[in-house]
Amino acid sequence: LSTTLSLTVFINLDLVLISLHLWSGLWSARVAAEYSTLSEPDYEFSDYRGKWCMDDHGFVINIGEVYYPSRMGCPCTCTVNGPVCVRPKCPRIHPRCTRIRYKACCPVCEALTTVCVYGGKTYMLLEEFRVSRCERCRCEANGEVYCRISDCPATHCVNPVYEPDHCCPICRTGPNCFAGSRVIPAGKHVNIDDRTVCYCTYWDGTWHTHPQATCEERSQPKDLGTLERLPLCFYL
């Protein structure tokens, strides 16, 4: 009995699947027949194949026309089978060309430069020049100008001055240092007042001095009045 029921179930399932398959086929045939009666304007999107081509920007090109699909693309011919693009023989780029621009299909070398133009003035390649007292520039091989600010060394004085033709400050006197607001020379002990003596100290034994002097209290002389009151001794 169980075997008979199983066979009945399988047979019924097969009949259901066959019915669904036939119904699906009939529905597809009906849909195809319905849409086949529509003319081309009835479709939402027309079929462009075999009629024209389209570039990267969406512009339509007629068959037989030559066009550039993009700004840097090679020329193409619109055919019934689609665009046919052939790269032309491009001219060779000079090995010393320093600036290449890609126009249309072939790369183009801009005019080889032998000078730099900066601030309205012309400079030769690899030429160094100064545009201000602190700014030094160089005309590089690619025609570009690169500038840098001068690095100034540390001065050995605390009162440097700037000269019109120099970028970095220079010392007219020195080495020296500050004792309060007073500038004193290095290498000497300077009496600031009756009780204070100052001198410039050096950094790690170099000729550079500390900006501020080292000051100490002066040793006071003994009282002469006390010496006069001492008894005098004579030795014969």
UniProtKB/TrEMBL annotation:
Top-level taxon in the UniProt lineage: Eukaryota
Subcellular location: Secreted; Synapse
Pfam families in the record: VWC2L_1st, VWC2L_2nd, VWC2L_C
Protein name as it appears in the record: Si:dkey-283b1.7
InterPro entries: VWC2/VWC2L, VWC2L_C, VWC2L_N, VWF_dom
Organism in which the protein naturally occurs: Kryptolebias marmoratus
SUPFAM superfamilies: FnI-like domain
GO cellular component terms attached to this protein's record: AMPA glutamate receptor complex; extracellular space; synapse
Gene3D superfamilies reported in the protein's UniProt record: 6.20.200.20
Residues in VWFC domain copies: 114-172
GO terms, biological process: negative regulation of BMP signaling pathway
